[in-house]
Amino acid sequence: MKKIAMVDLKSQYEKIKPEIDQAIQDVVNSTAFINGPAVKGFQEDMEKYLNVKHVIPCANGTDALQVAMMALGIKPGDEVITSNFTFIATAEVIALLGYTPVVVDVDPHTFNIDPESVRKAITPKTRAIVPVHLFGQCADMDAMMQIAQEHNLFVIEDACQAIGADYIFADGSRKKAGTIGHVGCTSFFPSKNLGCYGDGGAIFTNNDELAAQLRVVVNHGMTVRYYHDYVGVNSRLDSIQAAILRVKLARLDDYAAARNYAASYYDKAFENHPKLKTPARFEKSTHVFHQYTLVTEGVDRNAMQEFLASKEVPAMIYYPVPLHMQKAYLDPRYKEGDFPATEHLCKTVISLPMHTELDEEQLKHITDSVLEFVNR
What we know:
CATH class of the largest domain: Alpha Beta
Order of helices and strands: HHHEHEHEHEHEEEEEHEEHHEEHHEH
CATH topology of the largest domain: Aspartate Aminotransferase, domain 2
Strand order of the largest sheet: 1-9-8-5-4-2-3
CATH superfamily of the largest domain: Type I PLP-dependent aspartate aminotransferase-like (Major domain)
Strand content: 15-25%
Structural class: alpha/beta
């Protein structure tokens, strides 16, 4: 059996090696390493795939969130609401810009931000909501947009883990994750569903005026070369990464199908097990399975992780500590016990290998190993 990886980028690369190598060589031959034709081409391909008017490439997903907030004109001291169960970058950017992070609890089944918790957290200082589409499926965007409309708030979608997922509205129409709110953000970190071979990110919007402002902010605040009307940043996607992403974007839906195949295999193996809760599917979203995350019940999770490692099965814990208990983000407004769903998940979740290259032999070994531990 081939060695199991948490994310097998090498095998994925080997399948598309000629196209990737040629794409990189074309950029080198052109010497257009920054803002070259590959970047423009990828931007246009991404706009078409997402059915969105504007894609603004940038350096990484964290920058995408920061630039989005800067372009929206949120001011220091303003409050921004986000999920308590997420990667630190979401809150990190809010804090770095001098805004006040306000964290709320999540739905214990979908792991995504809980709309009623958002409603309760709104104050006169609230300016924006950042729903995180965690692990590969969308948050309840109908609810998010309704709340935002009622309170005149911005919605900034963190779609870094759900690129390619569809949100399904009541009338059956669909929009891609990241294209529903005022602005959407994604990361192209190598392990993401659409990942490059370094760092990269992008911002999406259908608002022409906001798109213009986003392009100014990512380019040092310049409206005309060497004339800086705004405080900006230097954040760009380089041409080699864009060329790689163009090749992989054409396969993104196939990659999602492969991930769903692996998820279905896991689901069947663990179905109705009293100690393992498989990932819930939100009826308003497709799932692209950036992660496959189990909730354990009555299981020593750390011992399980060690046992799986002894069987050469990698497993990760996303995330062991909620934002309100992170040392850098301690806040007198919050204490342990305030976010029961998030705190329970942080103590019980474990993620299994999930990528496009898993085969049946590997899947059987992974599931057999998990069951061997929980059944003993």
